[in-house]
Amino acid sequence: MKVLVIGSGGREHAIVDALSRSAKVSKIYCAPGNAGIAAHAECVPIKDTDVEGLKDFALGKGIDLTVVGPEASLSAGVADVFRAAGLRIFGHSAAATRIESSKEFAKQLMAKYGVPTAAYRSFSDFGEALEYVKRRPLPAVLKYDGLAAGKGVVIAGTMEEAEAALRSMLLDHSFGQGRVVVEDFLEGPEFSFMCFVSGDDVYPMPLSQDHKRAFDGDLGPNTGGMGAYTGLPFITDADREFAYQEIMCKAASGMVSEGCPLCGVLYGGLMKTADGIKVIEFNARFGDPETEVVLPLLDSDAFEVFDAVASGRPVEDLRWSGDVTIGVVLASKGYPGHYEKGFPISGLDGLDARVYHMGTALRDGGYVTNGGRVLMPVCRAATLSAARDRVYAAAAGIVCNNLYFRTDIAHQAI
Ligand code: AMP
Ligand code: GLY
Fold first, then answer.
1. Residue with CA at minimum distance from ligand 1 atom 4
2. What is the pTM for the complete model shown?
3. Which of 35, 198, 222, 401 is the most buried (most CB within 10 A)?
4. Ligand 1: does its nearest atom lie under 6 Å from the Cβ of 185?
5. Given this model, what pLDDT does residue 151 score?
6. How far is the CA of 214 from the centre of ligand 2 (A)?
7. Ligand 1 pocket, residue 118 CB under 6 Å
């Protein structure tokens, strides 16, 4: 089988890695891919949002299955265009991707189908939004309803902060003409629950936890994620069963009822509050960096799983290792703010870890840094402490004078 993977980060490297272990797969392409992915797949320079270019490529090469990484590709309609051309694709329609791209759509879905989440209202009028915030307890959570480059969520501890954020979003239109969702502040540990979903059929993956802040102790600015692990001790089997039935399955069947069934990954960003497990957000795709720690635990054939979901067949064989994993992100100094690129990287050979490339390029035959998040070593072991010792030994073996990493990944668990 010939497979095309769309995307260019560590998540896509992990997808390519899982597919390369499949006996069914003879050739993997990745568009556009990155320097590390190029070791396992043929990278083709087509942008992940160039849906016509991707479709023409897939038709021209006789691709049997396409697996989509980024939300931007899904929102651009890649799955709709591929299916209309008779191509098999693992990824939701643009309509179904609204579960991620529109906070208001997601909140309405949850309200209608009884999926637990923070109480909310949505507004386009500044005055009405401000009145509502005044009547609710602080802090207030304000979410711009639309694309905001990761800056669309403000947790306002004071009325002044809330007013300034609403002013920026609804009067100054800093991100555009979107509405704002105002929701109650929830507290508790956050975790990520990804499921393969095909219509009403929901197949769970191991739970994981991301580390969004840049520095140790969960301090510093928000990032795309500085590390992740599986094997969360604070989530019981009963919690997981509740999250599966009452959140993931209900959301999937709600999407069927709404006429936009899911076909790919549903990612629940969940929080264990004193009042039970609630949804913080849904994503319509594999998480990054969660995928890098979850897919290495897949013991069954990844192609079979993706292909079954893409074709609406039941997934017959889905086995996960009982091991756990930890992955540590090596990021460019300065990330998530300004950073420089092009620093040489060495020491990658012979490391006792899977090393996923998030943002590297090749220069004069060697790897150089080429993004904010650059590399992610991942180790799998029977216990988190064993995985942690190994992954930090691997991180220490990577030589580059412009990278930093957190030293406390999985601190909530170990
Ligand atoms: P989101 O983009 O919706 O994932 O929000 C980004 C981050 O803001 C989340 O990962 C949470 O840490 C935090 N957050 C979002 N909504 C809430 C909420 N209702 N209560 C507390 N924290 C929240
Ligand atoms: N790790 C969070 C995300 O993928 O959105």
1. 281
2. 0.96
3. 198
4. yes
5. 72
6. 14
7. yes
Is any atom of ligand 1 closer than 6 Å to the C-beta of 138? no
Atom number of ligand 1 nearest to Cα 143: 3
Order across the sheet with 65-68: list the strands.
Answer: 42-43, 27-32, 2-7, 65-68, 89-90
- Distance from the CA of 8 to the center of ligand 2, in angstroms? 15
For residue 132 and ligand 1, the question of a CB distance below 6 A is answered with: no
Radius of gyration of the chain (CA): 21
190-311 under CATH 3.20.20.140, yes or no: no
Ordered mean pLDDT values, 10 residues apiece, the chain (414 residues): 98 98 97 96 98 98 98 97 98 97 93 97 96 95 81 91 96 90 96 98 98 96 95 97 98 98 98 98 97 98 98 97 98 97 97 97 96 98 98 98 98 94
pLDDT for residue 150:
65
Q: Shortest CA distance to 296 belongs to which of 104, 3, 20, 9?
A: 20
pLDDT of residue 19: 98
> What is the per-residue pLDDT for 254?
98
Those residues whose C-beta lies under 8 Å from the C-beta of residue 170, and which sit 6 or more positions away, are 123, 124, 125, 126, 129, 180
- Token pair for residue 220? 């510093």
As a dihedral over the C-alpha atoms of residue 84, residue 86, residue 91, residue 95, rounded to 10 degrees, the angle is 20
- Residue ranges of the domains in the chain? 2-91, 119-183, 190-311, 324-404
CATH fold, domain 119-183, is: Dna Ligase; domain 1 (3.30.1490)
Instruction: Give the CATH architecture of domain 2-91.
Output: 3-Layer(aba) Sandwich (3.40)
For residue 351, the model assigns a pLDDT of 97
**Residue 224 gets which letter from DSSP?**
S
Place of tokens 């490391």: 351
Produce one character per residue of 158-182: b if its CB has 16 or more CB atoms within 10 Å, e if not.
eeebbbebbebbbeeeebeebbbbb
Which of 11, 192, 291, when mutated, tests ligand 2's pocket best, judged by the most ligand atoms within 8 Å of its CB? 192
Q: Is 287 in the pocket of ligand 2 (CB under 6 A)?
A: yes
